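Go through this pair.

…
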Amino acid sequence: MTLLLQPRSVEEIVRRRGAPVPAEALIAATRIVEAVRRGGEAALREQAERFGELLPGEPIVIERPSLEKALRGLDRADRECLERVAGRIQAFAEAQRGAIRDVVVPVPGGFAGHRVKPVLRAGCYAPGGRYPLPSTVLMTAITARVAGVAEVIVASPKPPSLVLAAAAVAGADAVIPVGGAQAIAALAYGAGPVPACDVVVGPGNRYVAAAKHLVSNSVGIDTIAGPSELVVFADASADPDLIAADLLAQAEHDTDAVPLLITLDSTLPARVNEALRQQIGDLSTSDVAGVALANGGVISVRSLEEGVAACEAIAPEHLALHLSDATVATVTARLHTYGTMFLGSKAGEVLGDYGAGPNHVLPTGGAARGSGGLSVLTFLRLRTWLRIDDSHAACELAEDSAWFARAEGLEGHARSAEKRTSPRSTPGGHPTRPVGAATPRARRSSKPGPR
């Protein structure tokens, strides 16, 4: 019988990755984004009706009272589950926010620093289609709220009641029942009652990814998401049934998903494949999962070092360590390049998807080499500042600035700096230091920070 997981090499997995924004999707998204940017609400409505997201005359914004009505209409058990998961996501985001501080540093003659401030408005996209994702509503909108964002708008095509209720729990101000490139354009540029946002976040299909790429010069984005990925790094202690379940959970996302096993045990691939055959038989999403399994495969390695190197080269969205406890402790410090890591077989990737706390909006396609997952940082901006209280003490700073300006051929910069070094009397009768004079020790202001 044909193996469900085919033998692969690291090089093959990396080489087979497609562009996160395929040319065909970029062309189609460009037309839609430009139409909405130029045409506003009328163009957004035209695109939404074209794709069957809105009927003529339907509201283009679902306001907060309707979200709260959807929440009240949930069964008690459903509402309690939403609220429990929301609480965990909020607690994790609050811990992140608490770790981020303003900074004040003394400089010659004054102080410099940064202030951490949220953006004013965030747009959060949650996919619809085959699998509406209320979990993504919670992950994005709650994190934005904890960061301090004043207005949060969710966009999701044809949102069912559970998505609207999730938006209510997350504290969203409104939901736009539109998807695809047209939703991203509306969030970025505004469209009638849809306000323009400062940051647009959330996963989506290739057209959503293309639209985020197109608007990224105008607004902040989190990442350009490609197909979802899971790497399971396993040894002889691993349970093949758990590995198969995790790989199938990843594979059912969509036909482009990449479920991958890296193993130190030569007997494990056959045992995992047998478990896959048994589990996929009655899986309702087997039509999708079966196709996706062919995108991944199994990489056999001869040592921990080789396995770690393979994980680092792939830089997966999700990295699950199905290793003995001692081995997990050994390799964790050597692994640096992933979206989220799951330490040990008890920490199933699905538990991260559904609200253990860390965010499930993560970099894909190797982007984890240079970026991390969605967090409160996505919605925060570091605003730096400089204040000089004592120009006499700051002469060295001005001289160094003039030196650099001339080294770079910018004479105007140099002269501007030297305006701060020329000798002249100050109100206290002390001349500012001429070029070449000794540098007095910087004096601390009693009130550091921007005034």
